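Milestone M4 deliverable, item 7.
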Amino acid sequence: MDTVVFDLGGVLIDWNPRYLYRRLFDDEAAMEHFLEHVCNSAWNERQDAGRPWHEAVAELSAAHPQHASLIEAYWHRWEETLGDAIEETVALLAALKRRGLRLYALTNWSAETFPVALRRFEFLGWFEGIVVSGSERLIKPDPAIFRRLFERYGIEPARAVYIDDAKRNVEAAERLGMRACWFREPAALRERLVGWGLIETELAHG
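Output delivered:
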């Protein structure tokens, strides 16, 4: 194996719309209702698949005019939904980089908001290439976006490891011939990488 492909949100970057909406709601239950029934994950995923933010906000605001300002905040204050880097995973990425592995990222992310992350997280520059779903108008777990990654960067699935916090994406990668790790916490990922011989134990803690 000579290649490691990372998902970003939930693996290397802490992202959660609650970081923003806790500043906009006094009532936690009301916030959760809003995030489940108005600005929910299915709605956000369509931006990850390439829908323009202005279109998404206009359509949802027309359906929920009483929440128009809160809906618009998801777009215009999107940077406030970003948390910090997940430093323990970034340390593992650094260890892989020191070993000379080929490093790529495959992320479900809006093309309009991804530049914010690029400016904020220096380690994103360590990747030889990043495939962003919103730019491709394809979204994981569609095998087409994995194949685009393989073709664009000359990746052999059998020589590559894929890391993602969404089980459905891990299963999609495995069906395409990659070894894959369902990410839940950095320590378990470290053990998998050591077990695969991709990093040494002392590097994993470095």
